[in-house]
Design brief:
The protein is an alpha/beta fold. It has helices spanning 35-46, 63-66, 72-80, 103-122, 152-161, 179-184, 233-251, 277-294, 313-324, 337-346, 376-386, and strands at 13-15, 128-131, 168-172, 191-198, 222-227, 255-259, 299-302. A seven-stranded parallel β-sheet has the order 1-2-7-6-3-4-5, with helices on both faces. Strand 6 (255-259), helix 8 and strand 7 (299-302) form a beta-alpha-beta unit. Helix 8 (277-294) packs parallel to helix 9.
Length: 399
């Protein structure tokens, strides 16, 4: 276990972080509160996850880098919005995406964080890289959406495609459909986008149905796995294992990019899935194995959604950092007293968990044998629609 190799300055994992990233702050009582990032980094430090790690401070993405995905008129609108006395449009100034001071600079820095992670992988300085402030997967080329101003995931993928990678897999485990990334690469056969999310009939943005398969020249490279409200860890993991590993094996990506939103948790106030922190930890460990198996370990990790700011996000994302760094934390690990004291100063009435897990059972029965389960309907739909496009047999559990 450890984060460094013995070959020169090369490290296994790059961790991108600077307190300036907390400047992406939509203000007031907006649910996308940067305190979740601050408390995550504090908890990770308190548990020793970041001991000996030199954090990488990113530079803001410039207009050319943002232009990989976003239209120049939109970038100009973001820059001008805090000073404008008129409606700038482009999805800005809404309840979801209010205008805030230094919006362009703060958003460009988030993109710069994911680009820094991509560069460390492409330049051979790291096999894995994580930028927790990233994961703004809803932003569209010409507008803000879903708390996201610029789409750092899409910009990083575009950059990777121009810097040594021909096949990129994007895996999105946020409760909301990864619509912005899918839109950008819908017609690009070099990018496989896979999104597991709450069913679009029951949650914003209302997209991400199984029938969204990719454009005419990229059929099968857009994969959507919509899950019913109330889905718990065993059913989520059953759906994941019945679809994702086979598709990654068939696509043969050179690098895996993941958006690791934790708004799938049962306590999240904005959605209706029912996962646990234990389930999140299991997802991260599984994705790590898949990256080792299919991309030679090349794995770029971003954060994303998550709106139970005190009880859930810091624990889940501390597990994410620990997993990426091969410093896995047992779920029964006690919450550090000093960290809990800090949280109680912020929110005195919050009842905090005492350990790093929820005590949930994450064991599951694999698809392809035994009794049917409700989640099998979507598994069969996804396999039936997607697997033949990759030369896989949708009815064969070995595929």
């Amino acid at each position: 276990m450890g984060d460094r190799m013995d070959t020169g300055d090369r490290v296994d994992t790059a961790v991108v972080w600077d307190p300036a990233l907390l400047g992406y702050d939509l203000g007031g009582d907006h649910p996308f509160n940067p305190i979740r990032l601050d408390l995550t980094m504090r908890l990770a430090r308190a548990l020793g996850v970041l001991d000996g790690i030199d954090l990488i401070a990113p530079d803001p993405a410039d207009d050319a880098e943002l232009g990989r995905v976003h239209r120049p008129d939109y970038v100009a609108a973001v820059r001008e919005a805090p000073m404008a006395s008129w409606d700038v449009g482009h999805g800005l100034g809404t309840a979801d995406n209010p205008v805030f001071d230094q919006m362009h600079a703060a958003s460009a820095l988030v993109v710069g964080g994911s680009l820094a992670a991509a560069r460390h992988i492409a330049e051979g300085n790291a096999d894995r890289a994580i930028s927790l402030a990233g994961g703004l997967h809803h932003a569209m080329p010409d507008r803000a959406a879903g708390f996201c101003v610029y789409n750092d995931c899409a910009v990083a993928i575009s950059w990777l495609l121009d810097n040594g990678f021909d096949r990129v897999a994007y895996l999105d485990v946020d409760v909301h459909h990864g619509d912005g990334v899918q839109t950008v690469f819908y017609d690009d056969p070099r990018v496989l986008t896979i999104s597991l999310h709450q069913h679009p009939a029951t949650l914003w943005p209302g997209t991400g149905s199984v029938s969204e398969l990719g454009g005419p020249g990229a059929q099968g490279t857009s994969v959507n796995i919509p899950l019913a409200p109330g889905t718990r860890d065993p059913a989520w993991l059953r759906a994941f294992h019945a679809t994702v590993p086979s598709l990654l094996a068939a696509f043969r990506p050179q690098v895996l990019v993941t958006q690791c939103g934790v708004d799938t948790h049962v306590e999240d106030p904005l959605a209706d899935l029912a996962l646990s922190v234990d389930g999140h930890r299991e997802i991260y460990r599984t994705v790590r194995e898949l990256a080792e198996l299919h991309t030679g370990g090349k794995w770029l990790v971003t954060g994303g959604g998550g709106y139970e700011l005190l009880r859930v996000v810091p624990r889940s994302w501390t597990h994410l950092l620990a997993t990426v760094l091969d410093r896995d934390i047992p779920v029964e690990t006690a919450i550090p007293v000093d960290w809990a004291t800090t949280v109680r100063k912020i929110a005195p009435n919050t009842v905090l968990p005492t350990v790093m897990g929820d005590g949930a059972d994450v064991t599951f029965e694999r698809w392809g044998g035994g009794r049917d389960q409700p989640v099998d309907t979507v598994i069969r739909d996804v396999r039936g629609a997607i697997f033949p496009l990759h030369g896989l047999d949708p009815d064969d559990p070995r595929d």
